[in-house]
Amino acid sequence: MPHLKDLYAQYKDDGLVLIGVHSKKGGSQAHDFAKAKGIDYPICVDSSGSTVGAYGVNSYPDYYVIDRNGVLRYADLANSHVDAVVAKLLAEPAPGATPLSRLRAMVARQPDYAFRVQPMGDAAGMDLDAGLCQTFGEDAKGPWLEIESVMVDRKKVLPTRRTLVRVRADEGLTLMRHRLFLDGKLSADLVLENGKLKGRAEGQTVLRNVPGGLSHELALHCHARLFAGGDSPKRDLAVLLGNGRISGEGSHLARLKDDSDRPGVSRIAWNRGEREASLVLDFDPKGTFLGMRKLSTSKGVAPLGITILQGESAETQLKTLFPERR
Amino acid sequence: MKFLSSISLASLLLVVPAASQDFPREQDLSHLEGLQAPALAVTGWFNTAPLNLEELKGKVVLIDFWGTW
User: Fold this and answer.
1) pLDDT, one tens digit for every residue, chain B (69 residues)
2) A318 phi/psi in degrees, rounded to 5
3) Which of A189, A202, A217, A259 is 20–30 Å from A138 (CA)?
4) Using CA atoms, how far apart are residues A305 and B30, in angstroms rounded to an integer?
């Protein structure tokens, strides 16, 4: 029983509904038992015994798992496999899922991955072309930089790649160059320059499509810096993105601000055709990625919804994001 | 400045196709599987408003048949 409470706590936000159907026998005790045991998931009583009959229950406890389409997929599943089956079925797309919602679900279930994609495109009627996330962290082997590129075409989620770059602090100032290929269609050059432990790192990433690859032209230009010093790491991440403009003078700039007592904010801005948009990424002071919020605009029109910094008007945010256009 | 001779680097697909692995059952109820789950003809809901499976589509539902006697 404690195990089920844990399972429920772990997965309820991902779409798990756990229902404890108590047998007819002893049913009057079910509520008291649930209270006494601190059970917080829904329970009910098979007061006629018909549900137990319909499901073929032959012992207690017996577990049955129903998928997102309402189909009974596992009847009287072996108890020790309940966790695995729940995880498996939660990973399946919900009916009517959009590419973005599937992408989000896919990313969210990566246990070692701190980057979650919010529904940037489908909620606001914008096509999301690409997301690029750089997450910084440090473990026993030293600092690391993880680069995630997420590509979404109008109709489908393109293969996503994750690259982990280990910053070698003990080598002094180093330069790393790394190239990404995404199914032969996209490539990325990364130049990462870093100092000693708690020093400074700079990186540059260029993603571009090969003609005939994506259905629309897409290019990203990214510039990143990592500052870490003393006991309160400072980070400054600037990301430049431009459609077809990858020469390095990118027209959009975003910055990550970080101090020791409040989450850092990183803004990624990009433009495609007539539209502009920006993303807001939250990091905690240690560089752990907390989440992504969206600010989207249409060529200077006020943002569609989300205010990203308290005390700043949308216009101020726009000026900050696109200073050269004002 | 020197170039690192080895860069610890992992590039991998995020999307891992679900393994076509099956899980053991405690009895053979295969005639029930693959069909819409039978409705819950139950009473005495606790910790929730009454639920029905039709309205829970989109969710994964784990039913725990339990007893306390």
Assistant:
1) 222 222 222 222 222 223 334 899 999 999 999 999 999 999 999 999 999 999 998 899 999 999 986
2) -65, -45
3) A189
4) 49
Residue A185, Cβ density class (10 Å: 0-12 exposed, 13-18 middle, ≥19 buried): middle
This prediction's pTM: 0.45
- Which domains, ranges and CATH numbers included, belong to chain A? 2-90 (3.40.30.10), 101-325 (no CATH)
ipTM reported for the complex, 2 dp: 0.73
Residues from chain B that touch A67, judged by Cβ atoms under 8 A, are 60
Q: How many CB atoms lie within 10 A of CB A138?
A: 16
Interface of A with B in 40-59 (CB under 8 A): 40-48, 50-52, 54-59
CB A34 within 8 A of CB B46: yes
- Any residues with CB less than 8 A from the CB of B45 and at least 6 apart, and which? A42, A43, A44, B51
Count A/B contacts: CB-CB distance under 8 Å: 251
Q: Do residues A108 and A131 lie in contact, with contact meaning Cβ atoms separated by under 8 Å?
A: no
